[in-house]
Amino acid sequence: MNNLHNPPVFDGHNDLLLNLWLHHDEHPADVFLQGPLKGHLDLPRARLGGFAGGLFAVFVPPADYAAQMKPAAAPHDPLGITRRQIAILHQIEASSAGQARVCRSAREIEQCMQQGVLAMVLHIEGAEALDDELALLDEFYDAGVRSIGPFWNLPNQFGVGISGGFPGSPDSGDGLTAAGKALLRACNRKRVMIDLSHMNEKAFWQTAEISDAPLVATHSNAHALCAQPRNLTDRQLAAIRDSDGLVGVNFGTAFLREDGKRDGNTPITEIVKHLDYLIATLGDDRVAFGSDFDGINVPDELGDVAGLPRLLHALAQAGYSPGLIEKLSWRNWLRVLKRTWGE
Ligand SMILES: [Zn+2]
């Protein structure tokens, strides 16, 4: 199966920068550009899979995890980690001889896709590094950051993320703090996308009330099919639909399977089931991919980014039209990014 006739894929979420920061901090750009990297994503495999770009997350891991995985980096320095991971993406661009670019607008993404240049958008997952006065938001924006999830699963100065295991509800108590609400307003002013994927129930509804942008969950699935607390309830999906937002479907088996297990022995059709459900709820224009490559366990049948043609093939087998597959693959992401960022 080749991907000659497949549409390019623009994807809502990956954790490549965490992988590079943890394991390849000496020569991160070279290992990404040349491959093969341990993990789901490097440039040669991206080319094989038709992966045209996506949101690349800067992720500040919890202090104890970082200390264990990267003892040399202690003491814990969220700002230093954030700046370093942003710098890594810029190094990739600088070393790529025009093969990869940090994109700041939908127009730049479209140009990259037309020219076969990997389109990389900077996203911050867990904004611990931002101080309460938001003084650093301008610095990050100037560095290319166009999307922010205020917190990951653990509480920080902006609010409380989702905690609790499977099966569980997204309701984990308190939501946004006053600083979190101020961050959302600042993001609206700068037209930085706000990611709801790690928000607990209360923060989700506060965001729905405060934000004037479409509601976007970059890498979450349907709670009705898999009761992970990180997946979205029907009420949340309806709110995303009503805001004309988007959900990027997560390829992680723990977010797909009815039993919530991390198990590679999970057919690709489990991704199709979530897409079916999300499309039935949100419509054809508000569903896309949010792989979470390098952050989760994917079905063995998919394997890594080079396996994307197998997913697109499964969609065709399930009766999805070429036009719908193109929407899921990239058009819907571009549509919601234009609505959020401006043309
Ligand atoms: Zn995540």
TrEMBL record:
Pfam families: Peptidase_M19
Top-level taxon: Bacteria
Gene3D superfamilies xref list: Metal-dependent hydrolases (3.20.20.140)
Any one biological process term the GO annotation gives: proteolysis
PROSITE patterns: RENAL_DIPEPTIDASE_1, RENAL_DIPEPTIDASE_2
A molecular function GO annotation: metallodipeptidase activity
CDD domains: rDP_like
PANTHER family, per database record: DIPEPTIDASE, MICROSOMAL DIPEPTIDASE
Designated name of the protein: Peptidase
